[in-house]
Amino acid sequence: MRPVRGRMLVRVLAAICAFGAGSGRALAQTAAAGPGAIDLSHLSLDAAGADPQAAPARPAAPAKTTHHVMAWTVEAHGGYFGSWAPVGGFGAVPAGGPDFVTQSNVVSPSASSWYFGRGAAWLNTYIKAAPPTTPIAPLDSTLTTASVLRQHGPGFGVRVTREINQRFDLEIVVDRSETELLAAPGVVTSLQTTSSSFVSLWQRLVQPLPESSVSSQLGGTDRFGHRTLATAAIDYFISFGRVTPFVAVGGGVAANSGELEATLSGDLQFKVNTFAEHQTDNLDIVFGERRWEPAAVLAMGLVAQWTKRIGVRLDLRDYLVASGLRTTVTATPGMPSGSGVTDLVNPAGLAIQFNPGSTPASTLGVPLTNVTTFSGTGWHKQLSATFGCFLRF
Amino acid sequence: MPTPRRIHGVTAGLGALAILMTIAPLARAQTPAAPRGDAGQRQPAPRDRRNPDKWRLTFRAGESIPGAPSSGLSALPPVGLPQNFLPGLADRAVPSWYFGDGSTILNANLPPGGHPITPLDGVLTSAAIARSAGPLFGFTISRAITPRFRLEFSADASRTAPAFTSSARQAIETSRAGFVDAFGSLFAVPFFQNPSVSSTATVSDGSRVEWLISGAIDVMLHATPRSEWHATVGVGLLSVGADGPTATLDGRDAFHVVSRAFAEEDRVTISSLLDRRTFLLLGGGWSHTLSRRWGVSGDLRVALSGPGEVTQVSTSPTVTRFSPPDIPTIVTGPGAPTLTFSNNGASTLSTTLAPFTTFVSTGVQVRAELTAGLFLRF
């Protein structure tokens, strides 16, 4: 047995030498030949009938190879997605309308809401003449800064890879992360404070008037949502072995969902002499994120082959998603009922005008529809760690 | 992904041998890469032990070319509230005459034929402060971790820190001169006695030096006995000196009305909010060995970072108080908010503005660096 094995070994080596010398250069020009060139399980060499004495002299016949290159893989994976949202961005409150002269010959601003901007500022200027009234806490900072954050959470996804050559793969990944959009710390408190200060301030102002009532309701709807990331990347395998480390870089898109909606409904009623006024101040704030944003991905990990067809992959990646945080405001001031133009004039001569009609104007009378008060800039860093099982085909 | 394989006794050895022989021409032709799925069989490229190349110290010089912000978000400070100095006359407090609502009110109250001030609105709401191309110097120290990979650390200084653009400088000068012209037109009315107007602008670019520190991995793509081509991937930190660019406009106007004196100072500061920022480094280069220890190299790198150009404005108006205080002098234009000058503080120019962000760039900031270097191997 030993001589036979030795002869066969010589023949096989000779054949391999010929194959290597002949095909190596060609492989150097054909990058995609990678795995097939090293998979001997499909290499068929007919050396049984060769003359052992002639083997070194006669080049082996061109090796008949049947490359079954399993260049594709499909993988299912799951893991955990972190999140690191920046607070950078740009915000500005709406300007409101032009100033106007009230019936009492005092100049008043035109505002969209008492809860923020010029309306809140005018209200706080107005009450300076009537201390010790607590000023309204305007929502300006809440509206003009990042008020929601995407949280961390579990995720899952699929990956398809195609081998390019020995060191490079192309991968396409779709990951869905259950990373919900939640209010930033202090936002809910800020909304509650503004709502309660609206009530206390207006109660102080209209308390002496008959049939007065003031209310402010804070409501909200949470659609926490999730994020889906679809990216393409190039995997680069650093070294080779049973466990193979790799790095990857690529890009794609992020599909965001989820938004928080806060509603403030202010209601104010009073009577001056025979004039009864009823004013509503409805504010709808949507804290959300743009639906589609570009994303870049940097990744590293390990790949291990269990069997010929099945393997596992540990993947750590950092998704860099352009910040699409956005806050929009819809303000609907109105006067459902009223019996004429009323000016509330304070001791300093400043006035707030109420008018159920269109002219002259009311101090609160400029509606807004989906006005953006904050736009995020920069990039979200969403780190993820996933573990998956792939099938090669 | 790694190709599956079977390793059984002789087959494993044959496979390894076959792999090596198959790849050998490829390795010679391209790189010393070993095939995937060949644990423990990978042979590092033969290295000449007499020719040290474990460490490299490279001194580099070249040009850094930052890209200008392509887009941004902007807003001017909000319009002030009515002051109601006189019943029925619209008036608003403003932070400055040089921009925004202040310029609007001033221009609306000029007499016919008066010279309006050109507001700074365009400077404040655009990328008036931007980086520009400049020289770069630095060094890189790298260490070979495998025949294919080198780990490197770089520190560079470039003269590319943000500064006012030439168009912004011109606009600032136009506004400065416009302040004198506008108030000159206003005070041409005989009602104002002994008028005096001045306006100065000081533009400082601060320290123009930026520091870039980065760590990266060089991947050798192609090698010949004396030359190597490599790709570079890494991350870094960009830091700007504490004294950034600022522009200060100082306008003063004073006059008498019936022997009563009025004077105010309008001081505006435009600045850039500088912060450190991280960047992603991508690039490639070539190195050529001249001798056993010395060589030359060339690199082209691109640093990608997030948005960061921020323009801010702040104001600190001053109204000189005289004793005894007098009633305000009010100028009213047709249908426009009034101009109120007071010697007791209740003037139109009365709002102190804390640094207010008027412009934020968006998008990816790109910086290209083209350098040549001389390296020492040890």
Blueprint of the fold:
The complex is a heterodimer of chains A (393) and B (378).
Chain A: H1 2-29, H2 34-38, E1 43-44, E2 64-65, E3 72-81, E4 89-91, E5 97-101, E6 107-110, H3 117-126, H4 140-143, E7 148-150, E8 153-163, E9 168-177, E10 181-183, H5 187-206, E11 213-223, E12 227-237, E13 243-256, E14 259-272, E15 275-289, E16 292-305, E17 310-322, E18 325-338, E19 342-345, E20 351-354, E21 368-376, E22 379-392
Antiparallel strand pairs in A: 1-2, 3-8, 3-22, 4-21, 5-6, 7-10, 8-9, 9-12, 11-14, 12-13, 13-16, 14-15, 15-18, 16-17, 17-22, 18-21, 19-20
Chain B: H1 10-29, E1 55-66, E2 71-74, H2 100-108, H3 121-124, E3 129-130, E4 134-144, E5 149-158, E6 163-164, H4 166-186, E7 193-204, E8 210-223, E9 227-240, E10 246-257, E11 260-272, E12 277-289, E13 294-305, E14 310-315, E15 318-319, E16 329-331, E17 339-341, E18 353-362, E19 365-377
Antiparallel strand pairs in B: 1-4, 1-19, 2-18, 3-6, 4-5, 5-8, 7-10, 8-9, 9-12, 10-11, 11-14, 11-15, 12-13, 13-19, 14-18, 16-17
Describe the protein in words.
The complex is a heterodimer of chains A (393) and B (378). The radius of gyration of chain A is 36 Å and the shape is rod-shaped. Chain A folds into two domains: 2-65, no CATH class; 72-392, no CATH class. In chain A, strand 14 and strand 15 form a beta hairpin. Chain A has an eight-stranded antiparallel beta barrel with strand order 3-8-9-12-13-16-17-22. Chain A has a six-stranded antiparallel beta sheet with strand order 4-21-18-15-14-11, with helices on one face. In chain A, 17% of the residues lie in helices and 48% in strands. Chain A has helices spanning 2-29, 34-38, 117-126, 140-143, 187-206; strands at residues 43-44, 64-65, 72-81, 89-91, 97-101, 107-110, 148-150, 153-163, 168-177, 181-183, 213-223, 227-237, 243-256, 259-272, 275-289, 292-305, 310-322, 325-338, 342-345, 351-354, 368-376, 379-392. Chain A is α+β, with helices and mostly antiparallel strands. The longest helix of chain A has 28 residues, at 2-29. By secondary structure, chain B is mainly beta. Chain B folds into two domains: 1-43, no CATH class; 52-377, Porin (Beta Barrel). Helices cover 14% and strands 44% of the residues of chain B. Chain B contains four helices and 19 strands. Chain B has helices at residues 10-29, 100-108, 121-124, 166-186; strands at 55-66, 71-74, 129-130, 134-144, 149-158, 163-164, 193-204, 210-223, 227-240, 246-257, 260-272, 277-289, 294-305, 310-315, 318-319, 329-331, 339-341, 353-362, 365-377. In chain B, the strands form four sheets. An eight-stranded antiparallel β-barrel of chain B has the order 1-4-5-8-9-12-13-19. In chain B, strands 2, 7, 10, 11, 14, 15 and 18 form a seven-stranded antiparallel beta sheet that branches. Chain B is rod-shaped, with a radius of gyration of 32 Å. At the A-B interface, helix 1, helix 2, strand 6, helix 3 and strand 12 of A face helix 1 and strand 18 of B.
